[in-house]
Amino acid sequence: MKKIEMIIRPEMMETVKEIVENVGAGGMTVSSVMGCGAQKGRKEVYRGTEMTINLLHKLKIEVVVVDSMADSLVDAISKGIRTGQVGDGKMFIIPIEDAVRVRTGEKGDIAL
């Protein structure tokens, strides 16, 4: 199993959701986060004073899939949300040792 963890622009949420459903992944977890990377924030004027806002609102999405599905999901999401602009996001692919469905006690791929 693999966990695909991504940090994306909030406006790309619906696109990612559709791709995850189309690929057949079981579900996902979404968190609202703030951070900065190569985008380095933006400048705004507040009451006549210029301020640098370097922590931007992003979404963190986590999806766990069977190994055979991971590459196709990463490729589809990468192509689907790429704008070519700084701030498109990052994806991290992390190996998962095991999973347990608490309700039934099922383990492994079947627990997904």
Please outline the helices and strands:
Layout lengths: L1 E7 L4 H11 L5 E7 L6 E5 L2 E5 L2 E10 L1 H15 L7 E7 L17
Antiparallel strand pairs: 1-5, 1-6, 2-5, 3-4
Characterization of the model:
- It is a single chain.
- This protein has a four-stranded antiparallel β-sheet, with helices on one face. Strands 3-4 form a two-stranded antiparallel sheet.
- It has one domain: Alpha-Beta Plaits.
- It has two helices and six strands; from the N terminus they run βαββββαβ.
- It starts with a strand and ends in a 17-residue tail after the last strand.
- By secondary structure, the protein is of the alpha+beta class.
- 14% of the residues are buried.
- It has helices at 13-23, 67-81; strands at residues 2-8, 29-35, 42-46, 49-53, 56-65, 89-95.
- The model has no long low-confidence stretch (mean pLDDT 91).
- α1 (13-23) packs antiparallel against α2 (67-81).
- Helices cover 23% and strands 37% of the residues.
Q: TL;DR of this structure?
A:
With 112 residues, this protein is an alpha+beta fold. It has helices at residues 13-23, 67-81, and strands at 2-8, 29-35, 42-46, 49-53, 56-65, 89-95. It has a single domain, classed as Alpha-Beta Plaits (2-Layer Sandwich).
